[in-house]
Write a structure and sequence with these properties.
Number of domains: 1
Helix content: over 70%
Oligomer: single chain
CATH superfamily: Ferritin, core subunit, four-helix bundle
Shape: elongated
Order of helices and strands: HHHHH
Bound molecules: hydroxy diiron-OXO moiety
Strand content: under 5%
Distance between the termini: 16 Å
CATH architecture: Up-down Bundle
CATH class: Mainly Alpha
CATH topology: Ferritin
Structural class: mainly alpha
Number of strands: 0
Number of helices: 5
Largest sheet: none
């Protein structure tokens, strides 16, 4: 059995991952509305990834006999003023999720829940990559996004991103 506090934190993390998916879907919609379909695609993939993260945690909880406690997902309510804002918001959001994963990891360490630590190792690595990818996109937008041709090329590049299911066996 999992430690009850760890089980609760993981349950809350499911909600955070699904909320991330919802936020990124809203960002994707914003770009599609503005004819930047490559950016839209990039965020569509991000949406799929976050849902997959939530499902991994759900599977882990199921494997450990923990009841899944699904909660309400708040509606995204941000009105973006320019094409850079969602990118910055996504980067900030990834840092928030990293901190949240780290908190669960720290608690698992405290109660000697080595199984959960091992499970979360994948998420720790993934968050490092997510932050890096998100930061990289912000920087590339700063370099190219304010010029129409640069924006067009960046959008074309982002159109080729595809979703790959997480490589993690539970
Ligand atoms: Fe779930 O990785 Fe981003 O937030």
């Amino acid at each position: 059995m999992l430690n009850p506090k760890i089980a609760k934190m993981l349950n809350d993390q499911v909600n955070k991952e699904l909320h991330s998916s919802y936020l990124y879907l809203d960002m994707a919609n914003y770009y599609y509305d503005n004819n930047l379909n490559g950016f839209g695609n990039w965020f569509d993939v991000q949406t799929e990834e976050e849902k997959a993260h939530g499902m991994l945690i759900i599977q882990y909880l199921r494997n450990n006999g923990i009841k899944i406690d699904l909660k309400e997902i708040p509606a995204p309510d941000v009105k973006y003023k320019n094409f850079k804002e969602p990118l910055d918001a996504a980067f900030e959001h990834e840092k928030y999720i990293t901190a949240s994963i780290n908190e669960i990891y720290a608690e698992a360490y405290l109660v000697k829940d080595f199984r959960t630590m091992q499970f979360l190792d994948w998420f720790v690595k993934e968050q490092g990559e997510e932050e890096q990818t998100s930061d990289d996109l912000c920087k590339r937008f700063e370099m190219f996004g304010n010029d129409p041709k640069g924006l067009y090329l960046l959008d074309s590049e982002l159109a080729s991103r595809t979703f790959e299911a997480p490589d993690l066996t539970l």
